[in-house]
Design brief:
Largest sheet of chain B: 4 strands, mixed
Low-confidence stretches of chain B: none
Mean pLDDT of chain A: 95
Strand order of the largest sheet of chain B: 2-1-5-6
Number of helices of chain B: 9
Structural class of chain B: alpha+beta
Low-confidence stretches of chain A: none
Radius of gyration of chain A: 17 Å
Number of strands of chain A: 4
Radius of gyration of chain B: 17 Å
Oligomer: heterodimer
Shape of chain A: globular
Mean pLDDT of chain B: 94
């Protein structure tokens, strides 16, 4: 059975899912087909004091506390960014690494460093260095970023949205879609 | 009533029009049974149009009215797909609603039942949730709420006055305090001064109630 996992490097929820997802894949002895889902930044327009805006703010503040709680539970370095992350280059790097069959190494290394504030996901130089660490030649990556990456990322995002994925991590297994690592126990039972 | 304080070890906020709160009801009551603790149930009446837009359907999926963006539609569709999948797996009936209901009367019924008889509240909540999600209960009708309380063996003497007076004031005053207290959705669990939104946190709520022994569990359905 195949396990497809859509991720976006700027997502804290995806960061927190990496360890448990890799552990599940190891346990089940199956490879993970990591795919980038480059999410559009959520921008709220209109009255900042509207009920909807207040709801969004309260929810976002809660999410930060929740993510910090589970990061401590996982004993991982987890630095909440003060400004929204731009993950375009890092997500394109995943496509590049996957072509070379190095997706696993790249995903684990890049997530860990971004969320430890040690890697800027918008930096071509830093992502190229991550590709090298993952064992991929980065010759041609600059041209790829300039010419193909945007279309390729949009194709993956359209594909994920078509499946019904509204966020990351999104798991596709046995033709079913699950959003969030809380589904890992169900996914485990499907894979075994 | 302070939104985050209680004499009970666990506060749980619910809304009868939330499919996720419906799915959380049975496993949450299981905590009460397993640990022999009292749960302080409270209403959080969601104002869904303010953050997820609004829509009406014909009950067969045809949209009759909509004030939702494509991303709001996608989120709502996934939420129902996910909730229905869980409901099917647990043998529950969960039919998508055809409009966004005002669940405040049912919420005031919760406050009434809680004061009168906690065991009656349990019967009331299961009955209201199950019928509502089969599309068999008009929770906007005061007489229906009173009938549900009676069915749950909860005294209803004075309920209609409470519904329009003290109960409504109590409900509305609580709702006004929720956002300032960091509350926004259901089910929400308050345990040991920690807040958790969603039934995926039941493992950690259970860990707290069980004395925090062993490693902290991760979220899981």
């Amino acid at each position: 059975m195949n396990l497809v996992v859509y991720i976006d490097f700027k997502s804290p929820a995806a960061r927190l899912a990496i360890g448990p997802t890799c552990a599940l894949a190891d346990e089940c002895g199956i490879p993970v087909d990591w795919r980038p889902y480059h999410l559009k930044p959520r921008r709220r327009t209109g009255d900042a004091n509207s009920k909807g805006a207040i709801h969004a703010r309260v929810r976002a503040e809660y999410r930060q506390r929740e993510q910090a709680f589970y990061a401590r539970q996982q004993n991982i370095r987890f630095v909440q960014p003060t400004t929204p992350l731009d993950s375009f280059v890092a997500n394109a790097g995943l496509l590049w690494a996957a072509r070379a069959g190095r997706g696993d190494s790249y995903v684990e290394d890049v997530f860990e460093r971004i969320w430890a504030a040690e890697l800027d996901p918008s930096s071509q130089a830093e992502v190229s260095a991550a590709l090298a660490r993952a064992g991929c030649a980065s010759d041609g990556f600059e041209d790829y970023l300039a010419n193909e990456a945007e279309t390729a990322l949009r194709r993956h995002a359209d594909e994920a949205l078509e499946l019904g994925a509204v966020d990351v991590p999104a798991y596709v297994v046995a033709d079913d879609l699950f959003v969030g690592r809380e589904h890992l126990p169900t996914i485990r039972s499907l894979l075994k | 009533m302070h939104p985050l304080e209680s004499t009970a070890p666990l506060i749980v906020y619910i809304d009868y029009k939330s499919p996720y709160a419906f799915l959380a009801l049975e496993p949450t009551y299981q905590l009460e049974d397993d640990f022999g603790v009292e749960i302080d149930w409270r209403p959080l009446t969601l104002d869904i149009p303010s953050y997820a837009g609004s829509a009406k359907t014909d009950g067969k999926g045809k949209v009759l009215e909509s004030q939702r963006s494509p991303s709001q539609w996608a989120a709502v569709k996934y939420a129902y797909r996910d909730a229905k999948r869980t409901a099917r797996a647990r043998g529950m009936t969960l039919k998508g609603t055809t409009k966004i209901w005002d669940s405040s009367l049912a919420a005031i019924g919760l406050l009434w039942a809680k004061d009168k008889d906690p065991a009656g509240l349990r019967r009331y909540s299961f009955s209201v949730y199950e019928q509502f999600w089969r599309r068999e209960l008009d929770i906007e009708d005061p007489s229906v709420i009173e009938r549900e309380l009676r069915k749950a063996d909860v005294s209803t003497e004075g309920f209609q006055d409470y519904l329009a007076g003290v109960g409504r004031a109590r409900h509305d005053a609580l709702q006004d305090q929720l956002h300032p207290s960091g509350l926004f959705g259901v089910p929400t669990y308050i345990v040991e001064d920690q807040m958790f939104f969603g039934r995926e946190h039941l493992p950690v709520v259970r860990w707290y109630l069980g004395g925090q022994s062993g490693p902290v569990p991760d979220i899981a359905y």
